Amino acid sequence: MRTGVWLVGARGSVATTSIVGGLALRAGLAGSTGCVTELPDLRGPALPAFADLVFGGHDVATTPLCKRAEALADAGVIPWRLVAALRDELGAVEQELRPAPVGATQADRAAAVVRDLTAFRERHELDRVVVVNVSATEPAPQPHPGHADPAALSAALAGPDEVLPVSSLYAYAAVLAGCPYVDFTPSTGLRLPALAALAEEARLPYAGHDGKTGETLVKSVLAPMFAMRNLDVRSWSGFNLLGGGDGATLADPAANAAKVQSKQRVLGETLGYVPQGGTRIEYVEELGDFKTAWDLITFAGFLGTGMRMEFTWHGCDSALAAPLVLDLARLTAAAHAAGLVGPLTELGFFFKDPIGSPTHSLGEQWARLTDFTRHLHTGGNGDHGNVG
Amino acid sequence: MRTGVWLVGARGSVATTSIVGGLALRAGLAGSTGCVTELPDLRGPALPAFADLVFGGHDVATTPLCKRAEALADAGVIPWRLVAALRDELGAVEQELRPAPVGATQADRAAAVVRDLTAFRERHELDRVVVVNVSATEPAPQPHPGHADPAALSAALAGPDEVLPVSSLYAYAAVLAGCPYVDFTPSTGLRLPALAALAEEARLPYAGHDGKTGETLVKSVLAPMFAMRNLDVRSWSGFNLLGGGDGATLADPAANAAKVQSKQRVLGETLGYVPQGGTRIEYVEELGDFKTAWDLITFAGFLGTGMRMEFTWHGCDSALAAPLVLDLARLTAAAHAAGLVGPLTELGFFFKDPIGSPTHSLGEQWARLTDFTRHLHTGGNGDHGNVG
Amino acid sequence: MRTGVWLVGARGSVATTSIVGGLALRAGLAGSTGCVTELPDLRGPALPAFADLVFGGHDVATTPLCKRAEALADAGVIPWRLVAALRDELGAVEQELRPAPVGATQADRAAAVVRDLTAFRERHELDRVVVVNVSATEPAPQPHPGHADPAALSAALAGPDEVLPVSSLYAYAAVLAGCPYVDFTPSTGLRLPALAALAEEARLPYAGHDGKTGETLVKSVLAPMFAMRNLDVRSWSGFNLLGGGDGATLADPAANAAKVQSKQRVLGETLGYVPQGGTRIEYVEELGDFKTAWDLITFAGFLGTGMRMEFTWHGCDSALAAPLVLDLARLTAAAHAAGLVGPLTELGFFFKDPIGSPTHSLGEQWARLTDFTRHLHTGGNGDHGNVG
Amino acid sequence: MRTGVWLVGARGSVATTSIVGGLALRAGLAGSTGCVTELPDLRGPALPAFADLVFGGHDVATTPLCKRAEALADAGVIPWRLVAALRDELGAVEQELRPAPVGATQADRAAAVVRDLTAFRERHELDRVVVVNVSATEPAPQPHPGHADPAALSAALAGPDEVLPVSSLYAYAAVLAGCPYVDFTPSTGLRLPALAALAEEARLPYAGHDGKTGETLVKSVLAPMFAMRNLDVRSWSGFNLLGGGDGATLADPAANAAKVQSKQRVLGETLGYVPQGGTRIEYVEELGDFKTAWDLITFAGFLGTGMRMEFTWHGCDSALAAPLVLDLARLTAAAHAAGLVGPLTELGFFFKDPIGSPTHSLGEQWARLTDFTRHLHTGGNGDHGNVG
Q: What's the pLDDT score for residue C317?
């Protein structure tokens, strides 16, 4: 099952790490640490092999992929030996990267993306191409009447307006090209009624939003712990310090707001009430691709006794995100092959703000994910209702 | 369903907090924070009401219960207003406390405990009495041939030897008196072949060992998180600082060893491998009834990138343990009423070192616990095989 | 040497703790922990005894002092036994508290304050009254031509404008009444050219600004450590969570900005460069009178090796500030008695933003403070140039 | 002033980093971050230039210096570019390294070391050679009558006994060869009456013990902070996790005990009382050359209010120690050139367990160090009494 992985934001840290890692796995130069689809509970015949993944993508930046990989090696994100060993393979992927599309209208630019996707699929004789958005976080877009339904959207895109935010323009093109779509960021992507309707019409599955890689991952096991023990969480305050490209983007208050909202949702939905405190994101360039998050949780136990917990998470977002990008490409490809359509709510395990997921608890999400893959491997489709 | 709760170590911090809390709940003076049996997923008709719990117990100490409660109020563990409001009720429980049993042989002392338990049950017309061990941690006992089976045990106890450690002598007496038994400590308790066989013969359920209240509770959600994400935990080092009675006991290297072993088990069994590092327990008198644990976890992600997490837990063990003691008394009473016999493996949620539990993951333990209580409330007994 | 301590903001947490503590020291009910003037290097005959301090003050709030003390006891800031033992003494201080002054113009209101101060001094036959501002932090004031010199100020105050921020109106009145003045807050207080000139004319000493009690105290020893070791501090990020009255005030962005600026100054001035990162203050009501600060410092050592340090400070601001208020009242009274005039730069030890202090290093500030008190005790006045 | 730096333990991490760093400074390839002798308050004409330092040493290990440097580059301690650029220079130093001395008696082995030192000095036409012990920590030695005075020592060394621990045998040889001596470790080194007397006779200065590079460095500013604020430190507990060669050595309980004692001294001597709690050292191989220390400090403020501070230090010991080794070589060489004799107590700034230092406060040590260097640069010798 030859599967294309088309990365929107293909020269970014997450994409570059995904590509280097995917190539290293194919070449047997690295293990699958961090790839959940290689765990005994998940792996199986329905998933494309790492060796069957072919990479391509778009990016507005033009830095050669090899340079980006070298910079990540310098920053301690990936080992130098892999960059050295994979120069030829990276050069081959370089040939599959395309600049941002041009055109007078958004319709024109979407058509250009469709052409790129279709040509990629045909050139490599791929069974399918999964489009994954790993580009920088966008601010929340202005509402537009064209977001409401496919007809309105189609009409609006032909005009001069910037109807769709960029993430959604790529999602739109993916659907037109018949590609399943994954949104790894908090951007709008496919989350507009018009796009969801188009995906249903095209019988495509999709997944999102916002990869759960650090502080929120920890929250998604600690919040259920407090809830299961009936402890009264009085306040939960988080402070995220991050450098790198994403940090600079999030220093923009609008993007920051989108991200913070996504991060706090887990608490209210898991605890059933919203504790005091909030989450802050600050840009500290010097931290580079690493991120430090500190959280303070104050809680009351039996008879009101006050207690507290704090944690510091010091993680490398690219190293945490990249294997999940490969996992999501494999799982979404398998779902497409199985004829599943619409939001893949069973992939909530991967996301801060999971579409249609009934829970933010990592343990419950895991149970749903293992059920889902078991059905994929055995040819059933479980209780996923939207089979094509 | 009038239920006795007989506390071994009845004047200790955990027992005193349990008693004050139980009385406060009965009087409507406090809420049920920390009691998991009051969560929507667990509560129901099979459990005795808080108002139906009657307290008694043994202790070698003689400090009046009221004085112990005042000391805990001074230490910030329970509110002064509850101690003031519950003086009469605490005085009534004082009448139900008994000193350590006397007698020439362990058989004599066990018989004295049986008399205390039987008299308590009859005096208060109780449907049953659950015996809960909340006394200080013992060192691991010397092996003795009498531990092997009921006949050998009975013969040995009539002689002059100290055949059983104290925790096990109480467990033995509980079984003789027909009382379900819970071990909230890492001591031996009912964990001897002879005692397990006697409990089966007497058609009694039992539960244990070692209440999961702090650092290990956190480990039991974080370790599964690392496992579910296929992250490679390289080291996990823990440092526990505790004052109070338990701290002083654990400063004894033998008791410390028992506790530490119990605390590390969760890692090996959840991750499938044992990371570097260990757990240390230190006594710092000044911390009183509060405990501070610091853990450092180093782990590798995709392509070997090194990352780290640390957490500090600052908890009050008595305030965390006491509501679980009430929960366990209610659940074990309900299990006894339902005719269940033998180890209640579905109560693994409560313990660091759960008897017969197939998992140390809090999420999985929670799923088993909610199944179990659902069956209790609906009159079924689930897949618990040992029904009497 | 009978000394009045007149607290602006006399019913606040810091003032109430100062009063309870001062009364407790006088009554021999508490030790002098936290009072630096009782250390062997500082104590001596020039300082008024605790027993010679008489308390009074202004406040816009009207909650009785006893109620405030009880609330602080409930919050764990002061012991209940002191509140119980000092009810009569607190009642006596209650008689010395005055509401905010009224009057048509700021000149009228200043005159009312002068009358309150003068009457207090005469009523208790005090040698002098030290006015200490411990009221809530103000936003930075609008510039006004009246701030420039005494004549312009006097003219402006007679008009309808709010010429001075409230903290400065009290400072102005203190000077008019011949009282030395201490500003324990980051508010403007005496920091206006017109007021400084008036204090010189009145031959009065004064001290400030902004008591150094928590995160900044720690910074003022850690930053010199990095500097003395020639380590390259790359980033220093701080996150302050605080409840209580001060927290709510600081949630106001304008007041927050004043405070944050004061907190960061120590880094630039000690290191000689400003590292990346900033300081955040967040209000978390649930933390009450306690404050938690977390700081992350990343630094490079020899050959560029990256390292990091983090600390968490969990302090009670009132308990840290109150003894310093007593220290400052004693030291400023002694300086006045010794005829010193103008800014007491040798008291930089106590402040985040010390007037005229050449250093933010706690160690260097300590050396200057011990020199200063040695001179006071031996009757010399050191190199303090402005002797009257 | 051509100065030899003879490293005992010359192939260890600290020595290798010192050599690479010294060569990089000479070649202008690195800055002097971490070198305190390059701070404006300390630098001056009395110190030998980095370019005048010539490296040699002993080691029982035989791994080539270049291999050791590569391993440190792999571990993130030194940059790869320096190892690549300095291959020739490292090869030259390799020629100056000698294996452990052989000989039938300790006297023979000392004589062999003296020959190595003398030959090194003559071969490179050095003004002097400073011997610096950076070898692994030894257990405390057995007492021996030969330790008492030079005559007894000389007699004993000619016999078959292991009279001196290895660190002291090198110190003895250094003195015989007329070399000033620095002990950067907690081992015995020159700390024996016989050796101190010999150093006086030989008119040599010496310094030690145990470089202050991490947790103790932080303690030496935080403990004075608590003392200067008259806060009551109730407990101070430390937990050190370290990998690398030193970690493995310290896992040996005897060496551990020596180190821990050295680390706790600062508290008792600075605070005037010993708080509860202790320091633990644990070996966690995975941490490599990095070390993580966590300290919890509980303290009481005014009226007994309980508060707490915790810090985590994540440092690279070699990167912290190496520049101090260069500093100490320069300072001790300058002291020797100035004719100073005996313990250089003014170098207490550098050590956990400073010989003859009246204080453990970093700030006070800094004041003494800057005085000392000012005198060296201006040709005076301050209050250092033992001038030759």
A: 92
Q: Alpha-carbon distance A201 to A342, whole Å?
A: 9
Contacts of B47 (CB under 8 A, 6+ apart): B37, B330, B331, B333, B334, B373, B376
Q: What is the mean pLDDT of residues D347-372?
A: 92
- The dihedrals phi and psi of A204, each to the nearest 5 degrees, come to -115, 140
Residues in chain B within 8 Å Cβ distance of D310: 294, 312
pLDDT given for residue A1 in this prediction: 84
Domain C215-315 class, CATH top level: alpha beta
- Taking CB atoms and an 8 Å cut-off, how many pairs form between chains C and D? 176
In chain B, where the domains are located = 3-211+319-378, 215-316
More confident position, D386 or B167: B167
C280–A310 CB contact, under 8 Å: no
Q: For residues A168-190, b (16+ Cβ closer than 10 Å) or e, as one string?
A: bbbbbbbbbbbbbbbbbbbbbbb
Q: Where residue D1 falls among pLDDT bands split at 50, 70, 90?
A: confident
Phi-psi region of D299 (alpha: psi -120 to 50; beta: other; left: phi over 0): beta
Phi, psi for residue D30 in degrees, rounded to 5? -150, 155
Sign (positive or negative) of CA dihedral C273, C275, C277, C283: negative
According to CATH, the topology of domain B215-316 is Dihydrodipicolinate Reductase; domain 2 (3.30.360)
Q: For position B358, what pLDDT does the model report?
A: 78
Size of chain D, expressed as the number of residues it contains: 388
C124 burial via Cβ count (<10 Å: 0-12, 13-18, 19+)? middle
Alpha-carbon span A77 to B258, nearest angstrom: 41
Interface test with D, best of B74, B231, B282 (most D CBs within 10 A): B282
pLDDT for position A266: 82
Closest CA to C239 of A268, A241, B92: A241
Residue among B248, B240, B231 at smallest CA distance from B264: B240
Q: Give the residue with greater pLDDT, C158 vs C385.
A: C158
Q: How far apart are CA A219 and CA A278, in angstroms?
A: 13
Pick the closest to residue B107 from B34, B149, B157, B171 (CA basis): B157
CB A72 within 8 A of CB A16: yes
Is the per-residue pLDDT at D384 higher than 60? no
Q: Which residues of B touch D239 (CB under 8 A)?
A: 237, 239, 280, 294
Does domain A3-211+319-378 fall into CATH 3.30.300.30?
no
Residue D190 CA to residue D209 CA, distance in Å, equals 9
Name the residue facing A38 among B230, B308, B315 (closest C-beta): B230
Residues B60-100 pLDDT 10s: 999 999 999 999 998 889 998 999 999 999 999 999 999 99
> Which site among D231, D239, D295 would you substitute to test the B interface, given the most B Cβ atoms closer than 10 Å to its Cβ?
D239
With beta carbons less than 8 A apart as the criterion, state whether A220 and A353 touch. no
The pLDDT of residue A382 is: 46
ipTM value = 0.94
pTM above 0.90, yes or no: yes
Partner residue facing D33 (CB), from C82, C232, C309: C232
Rg (CA), chain D: 21
D264 alpha-carbon distance from chain centroid = 18
- Given this chain, do its domains B3-211+319-378 and B215-316 carry the same CATH topology? no
For A365, residues 6+ apart whose C-beta sits below 8 A from its C-beta are A220, A348, A349, A354, A357, A359
Arithmetic mean of pLDDT, A100-105: 93
* Nearest CA-CA distance, residue B243 and chain D, Å: 11
CA C202 to each of CA C12, C169, C177, C178: distance values in angstroms, whole numbers, following the listed order:
29, 16, 9, 7
CA distances from A150 to A53, A191, A193, A340, C4 (A): 32, 13, 8, 21, 78
Report the gap between the CA of B247 and the closest CA in chain A (Å): 18
C173-193 pLDDT tens trace? 999 999 999 999 999 999 999
